[in-house]
Amino acid sequence: MAAPAAGPMAAAADRRFDFDVIVLRGARALLLERFDLLRGLGSSHGESRTIRDAYPDARYPPMVRLARRLWEGAEAESGRRVLTPAPLLSLGPRSDASVLAAAGNAGAEEVGDLAARWGGAFRVPDGWVAAVSERGNAVLNATEAVRMFQALAAKKGAVVRDNAEVVAIRKGPEGGVVVETSTGEEFCGAKCVVTVGAWTSKLVKSVAGVDLPVQPLHSHERELSAEAGFPTFSSCCAPHFVYITPSLERPGMIKINYHGGPPCDPDSRDLVSGGGDVVERVARWIDEFMPGRVETAGRPVDRLPCMYSMTPDEDFVIDFLGGEFGEDVVIGAGFSGHGFKMGPAVGSILAEMAMDGEARTAAEAGVELGHFRINRFDGNPMGNAKDL
């Protein structure tokens, strides 16, 4: 939860604090985190995420490119390294338009003989296309990235509070918003940005009575041994929507999973077996597409639980909450398993929306935000899915 603040002005006796705004440039700011600052209970932990612009939907690559520039800028400013360059392999049926579009949007070039790459780790079925992009793709160290941005926020004067669960947001008596935590603390500010991931639907429903269709899904990522120098990988075709990332946690191994998972309640999910039959499905995929390269007879080396926050159309929600809150509350949610790489871009967009009422950085980068409005679900529970 990103919420108003910095520097308490009122007496702590009544547990009420007055602030200006949220995590915004040039303004006093407060970040409220429900759990520990570097926790593993959501979608932004571990050390291996992929940044790639292999999207079938051409509306996403501009945001990826904006995010990449901001990632590199944050690395330079912080002196930390969170990006490790890696090639991208896209694989799928030649007859599938989404596969060809994703490869084209990533600038990937078709490879005639994949057996000569990466020790022949992949088997390409007849009628399938394999395309490789050598530019702009990388593996992100997720936990280090979160640590980097928390440190940069504190360096710029923001207040970062952990174990602060937000239970209510309401209009302030003289405008702005009041945010209340489970301990009874209240923070007053002009603006509020809500980015609570899998808890978005619950909070937005309780705050504004709005049914935002963001469904938490339970996902288990599987890490298996593979040869060094393995590429990031994506296959954008059903039923083989699989991704692979070289593991930074365990060098020489790979992280692999299907995109998606079973629905779950973020407050009561099974962290051990909640991912359903993902191990068996991943093993079958490996046996078909990487035969003889990875041992699947045993169990995975590790299973790492995380959550997706899925919208019906798998597009983000980036919008003002509206209603009685007007433009004082901004929502960033529903990142549907492909949002971490966009973090710096989405953060900049949300901040500009809260401070300026518009996101000029997005417009300058060619990012069209109309696609991410909340009202796309009005009378149409599938949102943008009809546009695909």
UniProtKB/TrEMBL annotation:
<dbReference type="InterPro" id="IPR006076">
    <property type="entry name" value="FAD-dep_OxRdtase"/>
</dbReference>
<dbReference type="GO" id="GO:0050660">
    <property type="term" value="F:flavin adenine dinucleotide binding"/>
</dbReference>
<keyword id="KW-0274">FAD</keyword>
<dbReference type="InterPro" id="IPR036188">
    <property type="entry name" value="FAD/NAD-bd_sf"/>
</dbReference>
<dbReference type="Pfam" id="PF01266">
    <property type="entry name" value="DAO"/>
</dbReference>
<keyword id="KW-0560">Oxidoreductase</keyword>
<protein>
    <recommendedName>
        <fullName>FAD dependent oxidoreductase domain-containing protein</fullName>
    </recommendedName>
</protein>
<keyword id="KW-0285">Flavoprotein</keyword>
<comment type="similarity">
    <text>Belongs to the MSOX/MTOX family.</text>
</comment>
<dbReference type="GO" id="GO:0008115">
    <property type="term" value="F:sarcosine oxidase activity"/>
</dbReference>
<feature type="domain" description="FAD dependent oxidoreductase">
    <location>
        <begin position="24"/>
        <end position="353"/>
    </location>
</feature>
<dbReference type="InterPro" id="IPR045170">
    <property type="entry name" value="MTOX"/>
</dbReference>
